[in-house]
Specification:
Shape: elongated
Oligomer: single chain
Order of helices and strands: HHEHEEEHEHEHHHHHHHHHH
Number of strands: 6
Number of domains: 2
Radius of gyration: 32 Å
Number of helices: 15
Largest sheet: 4 strands, mixed
């Protein structure tokens, strides 16, 4: 490999990239727009969930009624935000129409006699009609409503238990064995009513910031999409200008040419990543600056992506076909490789793509390192996997380059 030839290719490409306004937009301006847009939408703290509840009930004179329960729901709040927004409906059909129209998330129907049953210690029935047209919204609304009723029932059960135990202690025979006491009765009844006592303890762990997640998404877009597109466009410039034939006829080898193209592309993409990282810090006060292992992962990923872009360009030898293939590959992978969305919300069939496709693996490991601060030793097996795939893809690019050069001649 001739260092002088590689240097000449790198310098020429950097000058041409600087003059290309479209390239400057996609490499530098578009990423900043991406970080700004997603940071503005998702960067702030998420407000508490608000569930729109419809209620149908009848007026009763019992000590505890459906109106009492609805009043309790209206006062439930998290961080000063009311959790339930209640709308009363005159009858069940009007409430169901509201559910179907999407005006409310759930309709609660309290039959006649609900208050009388609950006040007298009997079971009170409640019918809940959920809007299931949006599965994710249904899961949230269902979880919040059922959680409220579960906690409310538990509180009511303990109050009934305390009343019952008051009578037990008042009328408990004094001459029974010491092994059988009111405290034992209480423990048994509590265990029967509430067999498992789950205690929630707070743990201060690493909480991933939305801004940091989308900064890593921006980095992923750069080494997935921008590198493939940039290196293939630089190659087609050589073909269109007729300089590729002269380069092939010169003492410069295939390795000299390809390494030069990849180095110039990597310099440009690295500059773009640094600008995005600094921009996020200046605007949102948060960012991700990769450490040595993180930069190694970025470099290996860029080699894989650039080699793939070169292989596509050499295989098609058409700028239109190459751009179409690059978009066809990169656009689905932005989602399927968990680059712009979390892996946790991917369908089961897409998880292997995020886990084993080299660029998906790379971004997952980058997030483990820079967001969750995992030790580098934890990701070294994946780094080896990315390196092997990058080397194989680079060899394929060299073979296709030599094949394309022979066709040109």
């Amino acid at each position: 490999m001739k260092a002088r030839a590689v240097k000449g290719i790198v310098v020429k490409d950097l000058r041409e990239t600087r003059r290309d306004r479209m390239a400057v937009f996609w490499i530098f301006v578009f990423p900043l727009m991406w970080v700004t847009l997603l940071g503005a939408i998702w960067g702030g703290s998420s407000p508490p969930v608000v569930v729109h509840v419809g209620a149908v009930y009848f007026n009763e004179s019992a000590p505890f009624t459906a109106s009492t329960l609805i009043g309790i729901m209206e006062n439930v709040s998290v961080d000063g935000q009311k959790v339930f927004r209640i709308t009363r409906y005159p009858d069940e059909s009007a409430g169901l129409e509201a559910v179907k129209a999407g005006r409310i998330d759930v309709l609660l129907v309290f039959p006649r006699g609900f208050g009388k049953n609950v006040s007298s210690g009997l079971q009170g029935k409640v019918y809940a009609y959920f809007d299931r047209s949006d599965p994710q919204k249904y899961q949230i609304a269902s979880g919040v409503v059922k959680g409220f009723f579960s906690e409310f029932e538990r509180e009511m059960a303990y109050r009934k238990l305390n009343i019952t135990l008051g009578y037990v202690e008042a009328y408990f025979p004094k001459n029974l064995s010491a092994n059988f006491s009111p405290s034992m009765v209480r423990a048994y009844l509590v265990g029967m009513m509430d067999p498992i006592d789950l205690k929630e303890e707070a743990v201060t762990g690493e909480r991933p910031s939305p801004i940091k997640f989308y900064v890593t998404s921006f980095i992923g877009i750069q080494f997935l999409f921008a590198t493939m597109l940039t290196v293939s466009n630089l190659l087609f410039e050589e073909i269109e200008k007729g300089t590729l034939r002269r380069i092939a006829a010169s003492p410069a080898t295939a390795w000299d040419f390809l390494v030069g193209k990849m180095l110039s592309t990597f310099i440009v993409i690295t500059a773009s990543i640094l600008i995005g990282v600094v921009y996020s810090k200046a605007v949102f006060k948060e960012t991700v600056f990769p450490g040595p292992t993180g930069w190694l992962i970025i470099a290996l990923s860029a080699v894989f992506s650039m080699s793939l872009g070169l292989a596509i360009a050499m295989g098609t030898r058409s700028m239109k076909a190459t751009n179409a293939l690059v978009n066809l590959i990169s656009m689905p992978l932005l989602f399927l490789a968990a680059i712009v969305i979390p892996e946790s919300i991917l369908p089961r069939w897409a998880r292997p793509i995020a886990d084993y496709f080299p660029l998906g693996t790379a971004l997952k490991d980058l997030r483990l390192l820079e967001i969750y601060h995992r030790p580098p030793s934890e990701v070294f097996p994946d780094v080896a996997w990315i390196a092997i795939n990058s080397l194989l893809m680079l060899l394929i690019a060299v073979l296709l380059y030599n094949w394309a050069i022979k066709r040109l001649q």
